[in-house]
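Side project, low priority. Logging it here so it doesn't get lost.
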Amino acid sequence: MAYQIITDSCCDYPDTMYAEMDVKEVALSVTFRGETTNHYDETYLKDLYAGLRAGEVATTAAVNPETWSNAMEEVLKTGEDALVITFSSGLSTTYQSAEIAASELREKYPERKIYVVDGLCASLGQGLFVYYAAKKRTAGMGLEELYSWCLENRLHLCHWFTVDDLMYLKRGGRVSAATALVGTMLSIKPVLHVDDEGHLINVGKARGRKSSIQALADKMGQLQIPGENDTVFICHGDCIEDAKYLESLVKERYGVKNVLIYYTGAVIASHSGPGTLALFFIGEHR
């Protein structure tokens, strides 16, 4: 039977990519300068980053059950089943809302199948996870088999990133005020990842921006599964030159052929700030 993959906007894909992969998107919302939107194209992202650098604040809201329900029901009404892959439950209530919606729709459409996967991923890490799922579907993998594949492989999606300004992490409660102050004075850059519970964890530090970018590439060398990373994703918080430098490192060191580079999306940028840089790849473990 035919089935549709549904995900949310924390994949941080360019607008055209959802259609190219035949993946349905449900959007989280962002409130910035008094206006709330769930569509943030490249023009919006550039404006958001400029505002964040100037000290402005943006707030975000998860996908609620009603919005999920509407998106799922559109698929079910066509006679298709649904595989839903969500933003990490360790960072948002979006997954819980999807489960609530799916539970209600299973009663309304008992003949249809709805599977919900907590991606335990974020940004283009979630994007890479959905990318591989879509490729499996295109290759002919059935719904139940793909659902099992998602559960078995989500913890192989490695998320390694750094930020340029610790003060944004301080505001989000990720580091203490003292750590942020001292780190800023000494040009200490944190090296972070998303753990097995989908939480953001500070696991290291580097002296200076270039060293922190090199540390991301080093992590890929330590964790990658040989032969599994022809394609990697990189997201950046309006720091494209740093992203290109990271791209050059992984291509030269590990023979990566395809690299998708795009912005850290509006939802995550609202909390991580400008200068965020992240590398996503397949590894033995996170």
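Brief comment: The longest strand covers residues 200-207.
Revisit when time allows.
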